[in-house]
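User: Hey, quick favor. My workstation is busy. Could you predict this chain's structure for me?
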Amino acid sequence: MNNKKFLVSVIGGHKCEGAVADLVEQTGRIIAEEGAVLVTGGLAGTMEAASRGAKKAGGLTIGIIPGEDKHDANAFVDIVITTGMGYSRNTIVAGTADMVVAFPGEYGTLSEIGFALNAKKPVYGFGTWDIPGVEKLESPDELRAVVRRMKGEGVNSE
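Assistant: No problem, here it is.
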């Protein structure tokens, strides 16, 4: 029996507001409702909105932060993993996931997408970098269906 949790990394910008923030929070909630564990970079913006959504739905959140002080993580992170690696920690955020959901962001987000694709992780995106390998999502319902399907097919599904 495989008891490993299905992990979904949500990546995106350090700034996130308005409709995008609402969508990111809804994404975190969907991940939790589907029984998956949320992984983020643990800081503000997209990372905080996703974590807030997951916590509202009773989910487990992991933040892999660039520094060494666990207090730098946002208030919605349950498990803080300090790295002291700066943005090099992006390899861990991407590599830890069974799938990645990307939102608008700058080059840190692009690096995480690249690391995930290089590791052959499925990457789905809402309005993020338009590059080969990133499958565009149009709605939260579409995301829910993808998480269910990936969780059912995944090596680490419950």
